[in-house]
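Input sequence (193 aa), recorded before submission:
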Amino acid sequence: LTLLGSALGCLAQAPTREHALTLLQAGKLSEAVAELREVITKSPSDVETLYTLGMALRSLNKLPDAASYMEKAVAVSPRRADILYDLGATYASLDKHDQALKYLEISADIQPYRGRTWQSIGASLAMQKKTDEAAAAYQRAVGYEPDDFLAHYGLAQLYADSEKWDAATREYQAVNHIRPDFRPAWTGLLTAY
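Predicted structure, token format:
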């Protein structure tokens, strides 16, 4: 009976994605990552585990590793807009905007009405100094999600850089209306005046 109890105890302790999620929710990121890595060795094409591991690594700011696991998740499930978006956002955080745009644009093709994706596309295009394309992406983001303060702020910055002060002022005011605690917009507004 003791042998059976020990065997059942070992089964209960086997790493699972569900237990790793519990660890993530408890803020135990490193432990969750270790457990997810073990789960992946047994199920290397489990898209949910690959994605969860990528996101956990991203939370630990291990961006190259995060991108690697998200790439694997995309290889298994190439039409998951959420994974594509997060992979694109991870590449943007790595300042790899060509790769970021590749995945963000596929995500936008799948879910074209998601403003957050268009805001991220605008930000990557702005980093590449593609001002007109960035403005169009930000405008699309605002069209789908009028309260997206980051899209309004991105537009305001583009307009300010182009010395289109009336348009910049309008966008900074929109940001201040949505997020009055966002100081960069107040600073921008003072500059626009």
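Checked by second reader. The mean pLDDT is 93.
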